[in-house]
Design a protein that fits this description.
about 35% helix; 14 strands; 11 helices; alpha+beta
Length: about 350
Amino acid sequence: MPSKIERAVDRYKARIDQTLADGKVTKREADALIRDAKDGHFTELEAHYLSGFVDRKKRSFDPQAREKLVAFVHQEMATLATIAGDTGLAKPRRQPKLSEEAEKTGKVTFDARPGRLTVDGYGFDDPLQGQLGDCYFICALAAVAKSRPELLAKAVKTNRDGTYTVTFHERKPGATKTKPVQVTIDGSFANRAGRLEYASARETKELWPLIFEKAYAAWKGGFDAIESGMAATALEALTGATADFFPVTSLQEPAELYARLEEACAAQGCVVALSKPWDPSERGIVADHAYTVLGVEERGGKQYVRLRNPWGEKEPDYGGKDDGVFSMPLEKFMTSFATVECARP
């Protein structure tokens, strides 16, 4: 059963999708979508869905309507980047509540798991997403592991009593700086019939991805509370750096987008991309899903974006190893992804 957050997201997607019910989007309808967004607190998720929407069946859009929506999304993302922050409970629970779906089965329990904090350091290919819609958080972990693994090592502490303490960074609304928040959890992890329910690691004896995910859930109010979030807030929580994010649309110049991606990845930047909420053009790209951006490169006169699926598998057919890591041409990236989120600690 979807969590409350997932259900709210589905309602929002359905509401903006209804605009295309008659096969066209007029300027009046675009104005209505903008008014609807402004009526409440415009969130990063709403920005992501509107960004994906403007490229959906783009020939159905009145040109003025599309340009107006694109301009609105650009403007709101710039605003959100300065005010968004990640906050959690004042008193995190040591044992976060299971997700609603897991709890209803009666088959998921917290059990002690033997292992080590790390097996061979903090690697971007270590974290694997489990039965929870927190791809954004797993991708953020991988992004930090790739660019600033020392931050992860500094953030987690193994205690003598078998517990772990993870330090996140919290920025209250209106604040310009973050403050450290320490979250202590025990060494048990959710299992169903002997298999981990949530995050796992590529190396089965490694525990750090499980520890960070459980601590984040404990801080935010349970595993349901970390469903369907945004990597921008997770990156800030993990690094303390204010995150930025920007839309990806077919109205952009490829050279401009490539330069911005290159800049985001430079100087140990941590970068995540979210695929389009509806119908990514590239076969093998999962819709409305987060991917870690590992970098950009030019080969044979063509530009590519290198990515990783947090599932640790399922990728477009580019001759990969089905380990979730692949490079895709920039033009395919532009028609398959909706937003990019990044932080430079």
